[in-house]
């Protein structure tokens, strides 16, 4: 039996710990916050419950497999609900599209909203997207990162042509999608990895296909219940979770192998293996010393940090009924990405951003039938005072929140007279809450053809140290974080 310490109780850390405990290891999770979940956070106030992170479950079979790997059923722990409408989209010209949650209904709905022939355009694109998924998912997403794995995964010239590594998501979309609203719809999927569609790889075309092929899902009670269920299963297996414990460093032997972790108070906990469910920049900048850490850190710093987010939790009385997911598109999407990534000027708040609203129809998250708990999110540049965007500038956060509420009203979601209270999480707040540099949601973005090779591997160069979570391979988002946990636990192996 090996003693394993997991730093961080985000979804990746919880899932990896659960798998490792089930395979015979003695696992301890140390979490600096007072609750599990990491970026999958929750706020409870006055009978309202808000998820503060992911609000959509896709590829639910990965969640099912995570629990099954420990001899449990996810359906005994969570109530998964498939949404009939995946998302409601409002385009800049005022046209609205209710995207069905079942792929078979998609072409008809797109035709009805955007005009005859647009459904065929979208389905032709999804056919190519499925081909990309078929080629990439096993070697690129479900296997440990490595050049040999990547090369083996592309066995024929036709497979290389399929994923078009020289092409961007925007470029491949333009080949199939002639309606500008469909192009804008596709661009949004780059933000699922915190990226710019003009620079993100064409391989991200697989994201909308996976979402529409397996559907959009919600967890009754809110998505934080996923973190709670992972924690409970881990504890049932005999694992230990300690909250409010900050790790100050990862200690090593003279030969450079992991020896344990050092706590903020100076105490040391010994371990045979350490799994870091923390942002990789944080791990190699603050937790690990030495030449190896500096080399890896330099590689990470060559990548572009992912975008961050400005989030509002709105407690709404006498709320209008909205679809579960609603997207109010920006009038100028390129200007939005320019602002977020600091192009054509310094990083800056987006004047008229795309607004995402999650309005779950779930009586367990609100105090009365006529009230609603809205999670509102817009893309934002990371917090970088002195060298970029300073979200702690006095007055900026409340004034920007007021501006966004007015913008929502301009686009048909007017609740200005019905807000009981609001909670705001800026990129600076996100950095403080999750110890993520700048509040970058996904660690590194997928901007550029080399981005995947700059993302940190699950097996670090430090013997006995492994990384898991959205900033490590294969990337951010609930399904990929769960795959990261599967890869990491597989690399460590059974006791």
UniProtKB/TrEMBL annotation:
Keywords for this protein: Carotenoid biosynthesis, Oxidoreductase
InterPro entries: Amino_oxidase, Carotenoid/retinoid_OxRdtase, FAD/NAD-bd_sf
GO molecular function terms noted in the UniProt entry: oxidoreductase activity
Keyword Nucleotide-binding annotated: no
Sequence ranges assigned to domain Amine oxidase in this UniProt record: 12-489
Signal peptide residues on this chain, from the entry's feature table: none
Pathway assigned in UniProt: Carotenoid biosynthesis
Listed Pfam families: Amino_oxidase
Name of the protein in its database record: Putative phytoene dehydrogenase
UniProt lineage: Bacteria, Bacillati, Actinomycetota, Actinomycetes, Mycobacteriales
């Amino acid at each position: 039996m090996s003693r394993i310490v997991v730093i961080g109780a985000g979804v990746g850390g919880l899932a990896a710990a659960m798998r490792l405990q089930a395979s015979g290891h003695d696992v301890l999770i140390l979490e600096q916050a007072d609750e599990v979940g990491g970026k999958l956070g929750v706020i409870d106030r006055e009978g309202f419950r808000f998820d503060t992170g992911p609000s959509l479950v896709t590829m639910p079979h990965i969640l099912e497999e995570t629990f099954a790997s420990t001899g449990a059923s996810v359906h005994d722990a969570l109530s998964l609900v498939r949404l009939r409408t995946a998302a409601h989209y409002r385009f800049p010209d005022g046209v609205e599209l209710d995207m069905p949650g079942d792929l078979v209904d998609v072409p008809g709905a797109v035709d009805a909203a955007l005009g005859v022939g647009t459904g065929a355009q979208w389905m032709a694109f999804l056919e190519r997207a499925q081909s990309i998924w078929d080629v990439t998912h096993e070697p690129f997403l479900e296997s440990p990162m490595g050049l040999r794995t990547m090369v083996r995964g592309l066995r024929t010239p036709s497979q290389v042509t399929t994923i078009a590594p020289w092409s961007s998501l925007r470029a491949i979309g333009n080949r199939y999608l002639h309606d500008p609203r469909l192009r804008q719809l596709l661009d949004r999927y780059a933000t699922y990895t915190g990226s710019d569609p003009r620079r993100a790889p064409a391989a991200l075309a697989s994201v909308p296909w996976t979402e529409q092929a397996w559907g959009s899902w919600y967890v009754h009670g809110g998505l934080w219940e996923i973190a709670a269920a992972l924690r409970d299963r881990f504890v049932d297996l005999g694992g230990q979770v300690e909250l409010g414990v900050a790790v100050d460093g990862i200690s090593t032997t003279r030969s450079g192998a992991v020896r344990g972790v050092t706590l903020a108070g100076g105490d040391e906990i010994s371990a045979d293996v350490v799994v870091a469910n923390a942002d990789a920049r944080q791990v190699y900048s603050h937790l690990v010393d030495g030449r190896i850490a500096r080399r890896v850190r330099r590689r990470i710093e060559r990548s572009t940090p992912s975008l961050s987010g400005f989030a509002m939790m709105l407690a709404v009385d006498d709320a209008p009924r909205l679809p579960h997911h609603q997207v109010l598109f920006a009038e100028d999407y390129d200007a939005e990405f320019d602002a977020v990534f600091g192009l054509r000027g310094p990083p800056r708040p987006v004047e008229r951003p795309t607004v995402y609203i999650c309005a779950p129809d779930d009586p367990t998250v609100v105090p009365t039938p006529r009230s609603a708990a809205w999670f509102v999110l817009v893309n934002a540049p990371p917090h970088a005072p002195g060298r970029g965007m300073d979200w702690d500038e006095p007055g900026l956060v409340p004034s920007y929140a007021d501006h966004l509420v007015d913008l929502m009203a301009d686009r048909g979601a007017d609740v200005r007279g019905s807000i009981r209270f609001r909670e705001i999480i800026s990129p600076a707040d996100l950095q403080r809450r999750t110890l993520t540099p700048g509040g970058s949601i996904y660690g590194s973005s997928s901007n550029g053809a080399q981005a995947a090779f700059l993302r940190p591997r699950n097996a670090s160069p430090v013997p006995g140290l492994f990384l898991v979570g959205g900033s490590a391979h294969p990337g951010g988002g609930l399904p990929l974080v769960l795959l990261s946990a599967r890869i990491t636990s597989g690399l460590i192996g059974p006791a």
